[in-house]
Amino acid sequence: MNGNEIPLPSVPDLTVISEPYVAAETGVPGETPGAAAVTVPAAAPTPAASTVHAATPVPPAPAAPTSNRSSAGFKWFLIIILGLFLVCGISVAYYFFSHAETQGVTVVRMEGTMVTGEVSDADTIGSEVVGRELREAADDPMVEAIVLRVNSPGGSPAAAQEIIGDLEYAKTKKPVIVSMGDMGTSAAYYVSAHADRIYADPDTFTAGIGVIWKFSDISNWMEKEGYNLTVIKSGSKKDMGSTARPISNDEQAYAQQIVSESFENFISDVTTQRVIARSDIEDGRVIRGADAVKINVVDELGNLNDAIDGAKKLAQSRSKSSLPGLPS
After folding, report:
1. 177 burial class (0-12, 13-18, 19+ CB within 10 angstroms)?
2. Which residues does the annotation mark as catalytic?
């Protein structure tokens, strides 16, 4: 012993006190009547010959801190967010690399007979559909140029005029190029003439500048079959165009007046938009793309990809010319 140890008398048994732990005070048995007893933890019974050093308080084992759990959860949250950003970045990069040939160019399709309204099927295209897509592309900051893909025999003059209004809006913001497929005639050419540039294939049917109004008469068949029709009308021309009777001379003259006025509006607009001799197109014939280039009905021969490339170049040229000090 080194002099600091206190021998304990041998006892047959030690009673374990299960009360809350209290730090024992040092003392010599028998010296101080009120000396505190030494408490021995139940998990470590002391042998009879053992000695007890001055008791040192032992703090209870700390519970698992909740801050560690919240920290781990936050780390996982950051990992998930970073993973999502990575996936989005890869997707965007893949899109741009896989669509490099059309990057910055939107293709709007005008295919089928043109009518007014919200119509789009295999045979018909509505002015509201084409117009909306033109305006959306014009307002999209990611779009540098628009290609209007035309494959239409024409349609109503009113449908063409509605689309022209939206096309002119688009032109105030970015280039609009027309690419013709099988055909771009009549009202379809009416629209196309307002584009910045027109591409067509050598055998594309184009032009067909003109207005037509057809009347059918099945009155002879009705008479033969014994089919009678009685018409009550408020004016002499109210049933003009009815198949139940032939058109009168007066009605024919009136129909010709409407057609002539519509045609004059049509051809005047086309020759204003493009430098085309009226005599080259006023007969209303369709013209092959290869011949249309010679009389300025079409600007250039080429397919859709050629039109897209041309749209890119035109957009780049305009972008440079808009910056001061840079050659256009």
Report:
1. buried
2. 186, 238
